[in-house]
Amino acid sequence: MEHRCGTRYKVDLAVYARAHAGVVSSVGWLRDVSLTGGFLETSLPAQPLAHISLRLIDAEGQLGPRLEGQVVRRSANGLGIEWSEYATELIRALGRGVQNDHYTTALAASGS
Fold first, then answer.
1. Taking CA atoms, which of 47, 55, 69, 92 is between 20 and 30 Å from 21?
2. How far does Cα 13 stand from its chain's mean position?
3. What pTM, to 2 d.p., does this model score?
């Protein structure tokens, strides 16, 4: 069951997402985050209760911090994710826009 805790922050971050033990992967967009979870805009075919691993992608295309979680909701345009562990400092930094300066949506041109 999905439970939200804390403030939800709007973000627009490119991420590399993997599900099903890494067998399925895709680039997606993290659209909002909170202390306990976030929403990933993606076409990744992960179902509720599936484990998912996200890596932020920086402006140079390099993989950054990892977020691990479980899919708690699937919608037409993405996945609701509950983090496996609170990512307190990272989420607070993203909410303040500190990390957003290091990560970009430059991959939009890639068609993801």
1. 92
2. 8
3. 0.77
Report how many domains make up the chain.
Answer: 1
Distance CA 35, CA 82 (A): 9
Q: pLDDT tens for residues 48-100? A: 999 999 999 988 889 988 889 999 999 999 999 999 887 666 766 666 654 55
- Write the DSSP string, 32-99: EE-SSEEEEE------TT-EEEEEEEBTTS-EEEEEEEEEEEEETTEEEEEESS--HHHHHHHHHTTG
The CATH number given to whatever domain includes residue 68 is 2.40.10.220
Cβ-based burial of 25 (10 A; exposed 0-12, middle 13-18, buried ≥19):
middle
Any domain includes 4: no
Closest CA relative to residue 44, chosen from 81, 9, 7 = 81
Q: Assess if residue 1 is contained within a domain.
A: no
